[in-house]
Amino acid sequence: MLILDIVFYSFIAIVCIQVVFYGFLFGNFAFNKLKSKKGKYHSVSVIICAKSEADNLKRYLPSILEQDYPDFEVVLINDASSDDSLEIMETFAEQYSNIKIVNVRNIEAFWGNKKYALTLGIKAATNEHLLFTDADCVPVSNQWIKTMISNFSNTSTIILGYGAYNKVKYSLLNKLVRYETLLTAIQYFSFAKVGIPYMGVGRNLAYNRSEFFKTNGFIKHIDIRSGDDDLFINEAANSKNTSICISQDSFTYSIPKKSFKNWFIQKRRHVSTANNYKFIHKSLLAIFYSSQLLFWLLSIILLLVLFQWQIVTALIIVRLVTQYLSIGFSAKKLNEVDILFLLPFLELFLIVFQLTIFISNLIAKPKHWK
Description:
Elements: H1 2-25, H2 27-30, E1 44-50, H3 54-65, E2 72-79, H4 85-95, E3 99-104, H5 114-124, E4 129-134, E5 137-139, H6 144-149, E6 158-160, E7 163-165, H7 172-193, E8 205-208, H8 209-214, H9 230-236, E9 242-244, E10 252-254, H10 260-273, H11 279-304, H12 309-333, H13 343-363
Parallel strand pairs: 1-2, 1-4, 2-3, 6-9, 7-10
Antiparallel strand pairs: 4-8, 5-10, 6-8
Helix pairs in contact: 1-11, 1-12, 3-4, 7-13, 10-13, 11-12
């Protein structure tokens, strides 16, 4: 019985940790109403790095160029593409005078390194305020630039936005991808709100040009091919200079992976960069994931042997209700409500999925930028 007592009290501790995360940390984002900001107009450089993205440029670039904003340029970076991306950029440049093209050729020291290409694009940008997205992204409205840039102020020099994925009907994979994206967004928005920002996504991210040069750009992690967004934010962001933007006019949507294999490869790259986060961020993320895993593992063990099953059941309900409310209110803000009815399944799958990624990354390093 001593072992079961240890398991039982460990389970109580785990539930308390989960309630703290979902109810208080994530709840700070989920349950608080965020006011829309009406900042000043700033001249903006929208930066898009494209590597063999000809079709996506043709399809999505007009939604950037037709934004309702008085003063912006679009810096298109052709990162040594093997298709007609450069020609597509040049065609658009003939029609729009606010396009600037940066043609990057591979060099031996930075072969295939997206951070090198982005650095050249940032240096070529005319304006202090930079707004980043990807070639396969489309803003949800023509107010995207205006809404994101309105969050800049004398103190806020980094703006974290939401980069969602397109909804695909009757696709379980799509719901898995979107749930993982939602949970990640809840984490980085919540951490930023309590003053410990740790990441952003390059699909929808803004920061000042001077902020980039103040941290010497990507120099500290230039040898790590991924992480041009989250590793930079992890280094540069702090409690004073970072704001979040969750107005639905500011969202961007991207094409989700269509096969489980491709999604797995993508997430392996993303997870591999987390090893380079600051200690406090790695610790909090590890505690959250470990407590998720142990919650389900210990609850199953205790219920199977019917040890204090009434108390265990009550604690499970408390945790699930807290989680559902936190995720639910956040999902409403981020327009992802349709995945809530699958929440327990999605969570369990993601726990196993992430564990598989961790093990895979220990065995072999993932491949990176195209």
